[in-house]
Design a protein that fits this description.
By secondary structure, the protein is mostly beta strands. It has one helix and 16 strands. The longest helix is centred in the first third of the chain and has 13 residues, at 5-17.
Length: 219
C-alpha cells in the first residue's frame, strides 16, 4: 500500500487536532454523515523526514499510525530492506520523543493502541497477512507476535467495548474481534472503489480512511 507522509499527516490532523466545516464550526468525527457536505482545512504540523544516515535513510514510506492520546506513533517502512521504524511524537508540540529502527513488521500497514494492556498492536499485512505484532510504547520494541485466522490490512481498538475491528484484505468487509482476537461477527463493507488505508473507531462508529490516488493495492 502506497501511503505517503502527506496522507498520514492529513489523517493525523483530521482525527486529532482540528476539523472545520464550511461554517468553520468545530466538529468531531462522529458529526460526519453521508447527507451533508464538509470542507476541511488541514495544516501540516510535522514532517518525519528520513535521516541522511546510510543505516536509516531508506525508512521513508509512511504506513500505520496510532495514538495513546499523548503521543503519536508512526511506522515508516524501509522497502529496500523490508524492515520498519517507529517514531514516537509528542502531540502537544510535535517533538520527536524516540525512534526505533530495524523492526520486523513487514508492511506495517496499520496500528492501534490498547489502553487496557498498554500495547501498540500492528497489522503486519504483506506478506504475513494474518500476523499481529505487539509493541511496548515505552521501548518501541516488539514484545510478542500472534497469528489469527484472518488476512488483515487494518485494525482499531475500542476500549469501552474491549473489542477490535479489523479490515479484511482483498475487500471492504470487516470482522469484530473480542479481547482475545476471536471473531464475534463480520459485516459487509461498501465497495467504494477507493484505495483502502487503515481503520479507527469510537464507541459508536467505525471509520475507514480511503484515498483515490493510485491503483487499488493488494492489501
Amino acid at each position: 500500500m502506497k501511503k505517503r507522509l502527506a496522507w498520514a499527516v492529513a489523517v493525523l490532523c483530521l482525527l486529532i487536532f482540528s476539523a472545520h466545516c464550511v461554517a468553520e464550526e468545530r466538529l468531531t468525527m462522529a458529526d460526519l454523515n453521508s447527507e451533508d457536505a464538509f470542507s476541511f482545512q488541514l495544516t501540516r504540523l510535522l514532517r518525519l523526514a528520513p535521516t541522511t544516515s546510510l543505516e536509516t535513510s531508506h525508512y521513508s514510506v509512511q504506513q500505520g499510525c496510532a495514538t495513546d492520546g499523548v503521543y503519536g506513533y508512526f511506522i515508516l517502512e524501509n522497502q529496500k530492506e523490508h524492515l520498519d521504524s517507529i517514531w514516537k511524537v509528542d502531540l502537544s508540540d510535535g517533538s520527536i520523543v524516540d525512534q526505533r529502527f530495524g523492526l520486523a513488521l513487514d508492511h506495517g500497514n496499520d496500528m492501534t493502541y490498547n489502553a487496557k494492556t498498554g500495547q501498540l498492536i500492528v497489522v503486519n499485512n504483506k506478506p504475513n497477512y494474518n500476523k499481529l505484532s505487539f509493541i511496548d510504547p515505552e521501548t518501541l520494541e516488539i514484545t510478542d507476535t500472534r497469528r489469527v485466522p484472518l488476512n488483515m490490512y487494518a485494525i482499531a481498538y475500542c476500549e469501552a467495548l474491549d473489542q477490535y475491528v479489523v479490515g479484511l484484505s482483498g475487500g471492504y468487509d470487516f470482522p469484530i474481534l473480542d479481547s482475545e482476537f476471536k471473531q464475534i461477527a463480520t459485516f459487509s463493507g461498501e465497495d467504494t472503489g477507493l484505495v483502502r488505508q487503515g481503520a479507527d473507531c469510537d464507541e459508536q462508529y467505525i471509520y475507514f480512511p480511503q484515498s483515490s490516488d493510485g491503483a487499488q493495492p493488494d492489501a
